[in-house]
Structure formats: structure tokens, C-alpha cells
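Subject: Interface between my chains keeps coming out wrong

I've been trying for a while to get a sensible model of this assembly. When I model each chain on its own everything looks fine, but I need the whole thing in one frame so I can look at the contacts. Pasting all components below, labels as-is. Any help appreciated, I'm running out of ideas.
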Amino acid sequence: MTSFIKPRINRKSAPTNKIGLTRQDYDGTMSTLCAGCGHDSVTAALARAFFELSIQPHKVAKISGIGCSSKTTSYLLKEAHGANTVHGRMPSFATGAMAANNSLTYFGVSGDGDSLSIGIGQMIHAMRRNTDMLYVLENNGVYGLTKGQFSASADIGSVAKKGIINDQPPIDPCALGLSVGASFIARSFSGDRKQLVQLIRAGLMHKGFALIDVISPCVSFNDHKGSTKSYEHTYKYYNKFVHADYIPPAEEIKTAYDAGESMPITLHDGGKIILRKLDADYNPADRSSAFSKIINNNIKEIATGLIYIDENLADMAEQNNLETRPLNQVPYKELNPGLDNLKQIQKSFR
Amino acid sequence: MSQMKPTNIDNPDYFHKVVDCQWACPAHTPVPTYIRQIAQGDYTGAYLTNRESNVFPGVLGRVCDRPCEPACRRGRVEEKPVAICRLKRVAADHRDNIKEYLPKKPSVMNGKKIALIGAGPASFTVANDLAPLGYQCTIFEKLSKPGGLMRSNIPAFRLPEEVLTEELNYILNMGVELKLNTPINSMKSLLDEGYDSIFVGSGAPKGKDLNLPNRWDDKDHIHIGINWLEEVAFEHTKTIGDNVLIIGVGNTAMDCCRTSLRLGAKSVKVMGRKPRSFFKASIWEVEDAEEENVEIIINHSPEAFITQGGRLTGMLFSVIKHSFDNDGNIINSQPIEKVTIPCDDVILAIGQENAFPWIELDTGIKFDKWNVPIIDKKTFESTKKGIFFGGDSAFGPKNIIWAVEHGHQAAISIHNYCRGVSLEQRVSNKIELKSTKMGMFEWSYSNSYDGSERRKMEHLDLVKRFSKLNTEVEIGFSPEQIATEVQRCLNCDIQTVFDAPKCTECDACIDICPVECLSITENTNNEEILRENLNFEKNEFNQSLFISEELKFTNRIMVKDENICLHCGLCAERCPTAAWDMSEGIVKIHHADTQDQNYASETAE
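Reply #2:
Try treating it as a single job with all components included. I did that and got this:
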């Protein structure tokens, strides 16, 4: 908290995006998280990405579950649609919402508790269906809201604030996503805004399920010596091995890339993701290569960047041939084919 | 290539420049300090804070040129800056008796005698600084009342006589001798009178004339603005014709047109050669004139006076068509037609010059080819040792606040000269940083942002204000207006001080900042690249980037754009490790009285 709410300042020379909005137009209510929480940086990166992509705030749906992380959605895009749902049930809610109205940009924010414990079954199925949404998992290794118990993503050997050492293996959401067929898998860190904003931009424009596992330190319960998800530890072992730049359609590629280093991927919207790899042998379009990269990873080398992308996998709407118009805009006659048609359908089941 | 170096915040100019108003003020008045004093109801303290820098808060609170206001940071957030000048008047209006707090004549004088020529703001400032140090100051004035242009050129409806007189008397009561009706006709004979040093503060008393056809046919109805205003101020002129034309668009023109109305003119037109954006007058003075139904006519260039039988009947003008480049500069001007505008009187307010017919050529005071004295810009010394110039007489017409600053600097020079110390040896400014932290989210200043708009100074009814020549038009701020206006100040002197080793690079400050003026980034070797990388907006106000030492986890740097910071302190409130602090930066500006002990302690260090 602070002594007063962040004021809304209409600066004369504030930069505007293509639809005439300023970065402040993408703010939400004031954060009530602890000062220094990584989640606030994720909020800012999300707002920045939406601003840069010139997305109308009212054409966005923001959905979350329960936990510190899930408060994030309140802190940005106050004009967007959205809901805080039941603990761990954000993926189902988002899937249903998408079936009813596929014209919005969907993003969900969850945490390691919400996604990897109570909601793991939900998340897996949303990934499997390749629902067209950005899924940001704010990962701090502890249950912050209940004062710092280890979560399912805590690393072996990580020390809790009161001295207990974790000896259970962590669930790696990226590995999980690879195994069930998510089409966009990335890892980042709340302290690297540059990378995070680019990944969020790419994830939002990717057609299909985009998971970004963001290491987002818990400043109150997991930022001490011995923690493997503290600011100090993450900065120390942070390894950006695939850098991704999202370039919108019809925009010039300004950065000069060395030949062989970059790998362009064209998205459905016509935009491009330019990947720059530190390891020339690594292929982010190859699932097994991605899998071995993160499985062989250790806590002394936190692999971040766009780990895997498959732009050709059909998303849920395409797979199921869903209505492209929002259901409330479909004429009643089409929406309700009538009693005779119902009888026909029922007959086919006999 | 080498990386950019961390900002040295011990450099007194670094944070001083951040306080835009104080930096822009020639006398470096600590504006946010006195506004906070007003906010606390300490009007006397606010007055004294002002007086230390600008000597005439009551006068300047009404008629200052306000270089501070266009610089004000608030103007970058909203349309209008803080009403700094009006708040200065608030301090003057509501102060208690301050006599006991003023410097006094010492019981033992130092035996040095200083002659000051011209009883205007520059000379009075020199006397104000030197009299308490034991100098015997004598001011020579040709007119029958002191004040210089503050009395003769600024009409009493803008600056009441008693306000001026009271502030001049504070200085005279320090044992300063004032010789009225005593023009100095010869510098040579003054030099023979045995003064240890002489200060020339005689202003720029020569109004420019306009030598157009028929100029000399009717001397009685074509007036030189500043002379005419002086005649009105000393009640030698009490009437004017029904239709008056003012030639010129500076502040003197605005005073002339409004004074004409008070002498009974029915129709007054101010004639300008260029569009309004080129007017020299302060915007508010033009607005005030228009409120009184003065007509402002642009793009009219005077060609000739028209007379009939030795009586002025009108003036001939060329109507000019200007063409502009993209930046609004005039690239071409063409006369398109000629018009005659009838009138009974013309007042010429097209500028003034300094003139020294009383300084003989062989005194050792050298003049340049335009007959302007050659003056050192820092010490204000002329080419003759021990003779100093200040105010409009030094570098031509400026304004009161510049004259005050010239006076302060000349006083230091005179003090050094009389002590046999080099004029260059002046105590430099210093900055003192004092944390304002009082507790959790508690600061010793009101840091929350107040979105209120600038309060409007109310004016006396049009009917009432013309009843007498000296009826003051502006009625001062009401208590409600004061309470709101003080909260508009952004407290730019409460500086954001960053302690790099404490930072854990959590970005909390960056996220909370309402104007996005912070960033953590890789160091570069050049500020332009840094600005581009960080998408900081155009730096119109030439403010600096703050660059921290390298941060401990990543060797990156914290960068802050001083241009758009609002000093709200949210970064410091949100920082989990108190790496940011809000510290009051007190810029110590030295005058003549602090030259000795400070210099001694500085060299001893």
C-alpha cells in the first residue's frame, strides 16, 4: 500500500498508441500486493504489451482464479471484461467464455498454487484443447497468501523462510505443457521486463494456448538466502537462451539480425516472431528438443525465453468448428433451430 | 567505449536545476519552500524566505515578470503552472509585522562609504546587502520619491504606492541615506567626493522615439511611453484625448493603454506589427488590458503621423501579411494595403535604452560602440576599478527581478573590493539534503497529487476600478484559493535520492510511478542512446537523466528522467528496501553577508 492512490495524470506529452490511448489508459485499480512483489511487474508488463499492441481495453477478457497472482487482473485494463473465478477453475471458465464469444482477446493470470495444485487438472485440459488464450503463471514457489508454505513448484533444496528444506520434486509447468500439447511455451522473469513484454506480445498474438511461466519472487515469504526463487538467485542464474521479438503485421523489422542467428515464425495475424538463439542447435519448433532442454535444466541455469512454438496446431474453435460470432449476436432462429430439428437430432441417437 | 558515469548529486546545480522555478528565477527564490510555509499558515516565514532572495516580495508578488511560471513543472502536467507570483503576494498580504526579523544597522560601522546612483531596485538591493555589514550607503535620486521605475513606470493600479514605500523603508531603516532631488550630473565630481566604491543603478531612462513623417508637427499629443507614465505617476499629466493609439506591444504598452483609460480615454488601441505570439508583453498583462476593453490590433506597421494645422488627427499604417515556416517563424512580410486610424493622442512604447550623459569620457569607464558600458557579466564591475553597474543600466532593459539579482552580485563585488579580496573569490552554492521521512508513508511535506486547476485571481469590478487612478485591480487570493493553490505545487525541491546498494531490482518503483520516469537498464556510453532505449519523451526543458551506480545483481543502472517526475514520493513509499528516499534539497545561495565565514570554513575543510 501507499499513503495515496496512484494518481491519474494526463501528461501533455505522454506517448500514445495507434488508437490514441496512453499507457495509463491500460491501468486498473491500485495494487494491494506487498511492495516489491514480482506480480506487480508482470501487471506492468501486461499493460505495456496491450498498450503497444493497440488493443482496445473493452475487447479483452481477463480471467483469474484465487491467490496473490489472481489479484493481478484487477490491476490492469479496468475497462476489460473479466472475472475472478473459483480456485483453480480459471481455465474452465475461460474455455466456456471463449465458446460463447470468440471475438475477444483472452488472457488468464494464475499462480503456482492455483495452477499446479488445486487447478492442475483444469490447466492441463485447457492446454490440451489449445484454447486461444494467454496463460500467465506467476510462479514464486510458495503459497504467499497463507504465509509461505512450499508450493508444488518449489525446487528440491530450496529453504523456506522458517528454515525447512523442500525435498519433493517440483512440477515444471513448461514440461507439463509440452507433454499435453500446448502450442506456445515460454519462461520469463518479472525482473526482465524487456523479455517479458515481448513474450506477452507474442503470446497474445499467437493463435492457441500460450503459456508463460513467469518467475515472480514473493518479496515477503520467498526472497531470502537459500530460496531458489528470490530476486538474488534468479538474477544470478538467469539464462536467456531464446530471445523472441514480436513484430506486428506490416511493421518493418528494424533490428538487424546476424544471419543464421535468427529464426522468423509467421503468425496467423500476419505478424512475425523473430527468435534469436544463444544455442545454435536448439530448435524451438521441435518438441523433443524443447523437452530435453528443460528437463536437463538445473536450478543453476534458469532457461528462459520462447521454449516451444507450434503455429500450425488448430485451436479449440477451429478443431470444434465453433461459431465465430459472439452467441449474443447470432439471430435467435439460428441459435434455436426449433422443435422439429431437435426431434431429428434425437432420432439420430436412437 | 566508456560507460556513462553515475550522476554526482553533490554538485549543487544538479538538484537545483530540477527545481525549475527556482532555477529560472534570476534571484533563485526557493519557491517550493515558501509555498509550503504558506500552506502551514506561516506567512511571515514565507515573506522572509522570499525577502532573502528577492528583497521586494510585496512588489514582485504583483508585478514580477515571472520567469518561474513558464518553467513550472506543473505546466507539463496541466495547461497552467502554479500561480507562484500570486502566492508571493499572499505571503506579503498576510504577514505579521516583520521589522524585528530584518537585518539591522550594526552598532559599529566599518568606515567604508558607498555611493549608489538611482533609487531603483538594483541600488536598494545593494544597500540592503551592504548596510547591515557596516557600510555607509548613500542613494542619489533625481526625482522627488524613491523607487525608480517601480514608482514612475508601474501604474499604481497594479502596484499600490504604500506597498512599495513600505518595502523601500525597510532598507532605508537600516541606516541608508537617501538624497532625493539630487541628480548626479558628473561622475567626475562624484569620484572626487571620496566614496570607497560607486554603484550605478540608474536604469534605462531613455524611451525610444519613432522618427516618422510629421513626428515633430505636434509635440503635445505624441508621447514617449515611459516619460508619459512618469508624468502621470508624479501627477504632472492628468488628462488624455478620447482616442488613443499605443505603438508597441510590450509591458510598457499595456501599462500605457490601461493608464489612458483611467485618465478618461474612450477608445484605446494597441497597435502591433506582428501576430500575438510575437508580443513582448506577458500574456496575463495583455489579457488584463483586453478585459478593460482595450483593442489589440495586429499586423499594422506605423508609416506616418497625420496632422492638420499642427494638431495630430490620426496615424497611417501599412497592413502587413506575414508568411511563416513550420516552426512559426516569420519568413516573409509584405505590406498589402494602407489604412488611416484617427486618434487624438499617440503613445510610443517601443523600447528604452540606457543613457549616461553624465559620465564623462575620461573617467576610465569604457563604453562599446552602442554607448553601452562594458561590464563584467559576473562581477558587474566596469572598466574602472571600484565602479559597478547593475539593473537596466548594466545590460539594458530587463526587469525588476534581474535588477535585484544584479544588486546581490554587485554587493558581493563591492564587499570584496572594499576588503581587498579578489572579485572572483565568491562562495559557491551548496546543496544540503535532508530526508523528509517521518515514518511509514509519512513525509514532512504533502506528497499526494492534487489535480486542482489554477485558481483565478479575481479583479475589481470594471466600474469600481476606474474610479481612481490608484485603485488596485487585483484583489488578492481568498483563503479558499490559497488553500487550493498551495497544494498544486509539486514540491520539486523534495528530491528523489537513490541509494544503489540497497536496491534489489524488484521494479516496484518503476511500476508505481504515475509518469513512468524510472527505468532499470543496461548502461550505454551516450545519453541520447539511453533516452532512445528507454522511450523517454522529448526533453524540452533540458532536464538531466539521473544515472545510478551499477546495481548489485545485474550491474544494470537505475535511470530517472528528471523532466517528468512529479516528486510524489510513491517510488519511495513502494520501495521495500528504502533505496529511494525523498530528501529536501536546500540550495544555499550566498549573498554578501555570508562571504567571510563561509569562505573561511570552506578553505579550512
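Reply #3:
Confirming on my end. The longest strand of chain B covers residues 311-324.
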